[in-house]
Amino acid sequence: MTRFTLVVCLLIGALPALGQGAAIDRTAAIMAGQEAQFTHRFTPKGFKTSQVERGSVIFGRLPMMRWTYTAPERKTFVFDGSRSWFYVPADRQVTVADLDDRRKSELPFLLIGDAAARSKEFEVREQRRGASITTTLHPRSTSAAIRTVSIVTSAKTNLIESVEYTDRDGNRTSFTFSGYHRARTGDDTFRFTPPAGVQVVRAE
Questions:
Q1: For residue 117, what is the DSSP state?
Q2: Fewer CB within 10 Å, N side or C side of the chain?
Q3: Average confidence (pLDDT) over 178-184
Q4: In terms of residue numbers, what domain contains 36?
Q5: Residues 6+ apart with CB under 8 A from 6
């Protein structure tokens, strides 16, 4: 084998590894200001029937997000990048949490906008399937709370089509998205001010 042939073989062999995570990086770059409808399904281990919830989500510069659930129960989840608010009107309660790196690694959506954390916590693989790209994340640690994560994005728009993952207890969670459009966002979009009279609880 000549030196030229050897170099070409080495470069070709390296290309797949160099490209892993590229689709998610493109997605993270264009999600800010996008709003979409979502369907959230949670399937407990051992069950075939899923619990289904629906609503809309506004994406900021990831990982900033605002989730508004409308059915079957109204609730709101807001994340500004380091702090989250979870509000359930029926309970008249807001749970506030500051998320450290460990907690962030357990929330797949937060990994989309954090390439360093994604590479540190997971092995990343990408595969083109028709008009979509599937990015699969496998945890590097056997004790990780989250197991396999599958993120499907549009090869044309780079927008997220679905996210699905399992946890170490065997429960499966999935989100599907549709109806993307530009949203108006402001300084208060990714902050949450508890309504008067609502109990505020600090998560440990």
A1: H
A2: C
A3: 96
A4: 19-202
A5: none
Q: How sure is the predictor about 4, in pLDDT bands with cuts at 50, 70 and 90?
A: very low
- Do residues 165 and 36 lie in contact, with contact meaning Cβ atoms separated by under 8 Å? no
Kindly state the tokens that stand for 183.
């949203």
* CATH number, position 158: 2.50.20.10
Name the DSSP class of 101: H
> Is the pLDDT reported for residue 2 higher than 80?
no
pLDDT of residue 109: 74
Residue 67 lies in a domain: yes
Nearest to 57 by CA among 46, 65, 49, 48: 65
pLDDT digits (tens, 9 = 90+) for 74-110: 999 999 988 999 999 999 999 999 977 777 667 777 7
- Residue 163: closest CA among 134, 190, 131: 134
DSSP track, 40-97:
EEEE-TT-SSPEEEEEEEEE-STT-EEEEEEESS-EEEEE-SSEEEEEEGGGTEEEEE
Cα distance between residue 186 and residue 60, in whole Å: 10
Going by DSSP bridges, is the β-strand pair 34-43/172-182 parallel, antiparallel, or unpaired? antiparallel
Alpha carbon distances (Å) from 162 to 14, 30, 38, 203: 28, 16, 9, 28
